[in-house]
Amino acid sequence: MELTLEEEKRYVRQIHLKAIDFEGQERLKSSRMLIVGLGGLGCAAAQYLATAGVGHLTLLDFDTVSLSNLQRQVLHDDSRLGMEKVRSAEQSLRKLNPHIHLTSIHQHADDALMQKLISEVDVVLDCSDNLTTRNQLDKLCQQCKVPLVSGAAIRMEGLISTFTYEENTPTYHSLSQFFGEVGQSCVETGVLAPIVGIIGSMQALEAIKVCLKIGKTLCGRVLLIDGLSMTIREMQLPV
């Protein structure tokens, strides 16, 4: 899919990168990605995928904007309290980049709908905040062989990993087995705003790398980030 002259000017700093060039930017324009969850992680990831020129973003979330969201969910604002998060995010993303296509879905997705959405995209970003959705995405992405970029943040800590579902690579279960049966949420324990921005931005970076097949992704590894001590640890995941 060729770039217009206006798009060439918009993305020129990326086109200058040898790993991307015109071919990579055109591939981004023709790519499709699914973002599940338009909270702190999803807002951060979506804005950078949009401005980077990903051609089609599908936004999936069942929630509405509340006042307590605004501390970290940067695509929403006070004028949109009570609005569907996907609609609020879509309005902000259209202002950031009018050249992209957006599909907003405001509902809980059962397996049938989720599988349909996953089968239509190149990469899925798990920006949800609950283990049930994460396990659902892991199962269906594995079935569809669609890469999954998973992130999580709580308190001042975050983690991120990528699952390609290629032969002899781990799944999300390889990571979630360390969490136990019940996961904590930021509602219960709190979260510092910048940590979701850091993890969400890294998810966008991983999704672009997976899409363009450049660099070394986090497949087989998980990064653990402690914002309070500003340390990053890497853990290998078992297959």
Automatic annotation (TrEMBL):
It comes from the Bacteria. The keyword Coiled coil does not apply. PANTHER family: MOLYBDOPTERIN-SYNTHASE ADENYLYLTRANSFERASE (PTHR10953:SF194), UBIQUITIN-ACTIVATING ENZYME E1 (PTHR10953). The gene is moeB_1. InterPro entries: ThiF/MoeB/HesA (IPR045886), ThiF_NAD_FAD-bd (IPR000594), Ubiquitin-activating_enz (IPR035985). Keywords: Nucleotidyltransferase, Transferase. This is Molybdopterin biosynthesis protein MoeB. Pfam families: ThiF (PF00899). SUPFAM superfamilies: Activating enzymes of the ubiquitin-like proteins (SSF69572). Its EC number is 2.7.7.80. One of its GO terms (molecular function) is thiosulfate-cyanide sulfurtransferase activity. Residues 11-237 form the THIF-type NAD/FAD binding fold domain. Belongs to the HesA/MoeB/ThiF family. One of its GO terms (cellular component) is cytosol.
